[in-house]
Write a structure and sequence with these properties.
96 residues; alpha+beta; three-stranded antiparallel sheet; 1 helix
Length: 96
Amino acid sequence: MMKNIARAAAVATVAGVALVGAVTPASAGTKPACVSVDVRSFNHVVMYNNCSTSQRLRVVWNNARDSGCFTVASGASKDVNAYNQPFASYDKVVTC
């Protein structure tokens, strides 16, 4: 009986750690002020890099997976959408 309780506690602990790891977002920082975002629709944005250096950026969506990281060169823009995720809506842009 004690072994079963200990085993159940160990499984719950491992499951809890796995859940926390899955929910915790990847390390992300605040986008610099020199990066602007044009929200074209609830699930389509364009990021503009007006910085003097390239920026690594990610779009954070509500109710959907975040975008991957994009390197946007100085003076360039990146069009990002979540059309394949029907419940997505724009939240923010962060560095990655």
